[in-house]
Amino acid sequence: MRIKAERDSVCLGDVCTAPNGEYIFFESGIRLSELLLQIAQYVPDYSGRQHTIWGIEYKGEPIAFLECDENNKYKCILNTDDILADAMDEKKIYCRYFFHYHGNVSSNIKALFNSNHLNAYALLDYVKAYYALPESERWGWF
């Protein structure tokens, strides 16, 4: 089985190959939580340099988050039920990039960050606040 994955660019050189898509192949019968481990191998990581979260979108909605720690290990956080990944066969996901590095944040959450939206203090709180906005008010990082 397979799913088409596309992701935000993470640097200027990465823009040349955007949307950086590839197929992720998986075994029938695995759960979304297991598929996320494969998606974590697809997205770039940033050990210790910056706090990075990837919002994993399916049909325009966040189904999970991948949070990279200082050891290049991803923590998988589901934002939906742990469904069978089979339901996603031949479909598409989008991986949206969020970061916080020494006071600099990705532009898609900058307005939320500067306004201390919802009194959120952790990057994941800002990412969730971004997704709580109507889709027409969200925009990607460029």
Topology at a glance:
Layout: E1 2-7, H1 12-15, E2 22-25, H2 32-42, E3 51-58, E4 61-68, E5 74-78, E6 92-101, E7 104-105, H3 110-114, H4 123-132
Parallel strand pairs: 1-6
Antiparallel strand pairs: 1-2, 3-4, 3-6, 4-5, 6-7
Order of helices and strands: EHEHEEEEEHH
Mean of pLDDT: 84
Counting DSSP E segments of at least 2 residues, the number of strands comes to 7
The shape, in one word, is globular
| Cα radius of gyration in angstroms | 15 Å
The figure for the number of domains is: 1
Poorly predicted spans: none
Major pleated sheet = 7 strands, mixed
**Approximate strand percentage:** 25-35%
Query: Helicity, in percent?
Result: 10-25%
The chain-level structural class is: alpha+beta
Number of helices: 4
Distance between the termini: 31 Å
Structural notes for this entry:
The protein is an alpha+beta fold and 142 residues long. The protein has one domain. It is 21% helix and 30% strand. It contains four helices and seven strands. Strands 1, 2, 3, 4, 5, 6 and 7 form a seven-stranded mixed sheet that branches. The relative contact order is 0.20. The model has no long low-confidence stretch (mean pLDDT 84).
Q: Main attributes?
A:
single chain, 142 residues, alpha+beta, 30% strand, globular
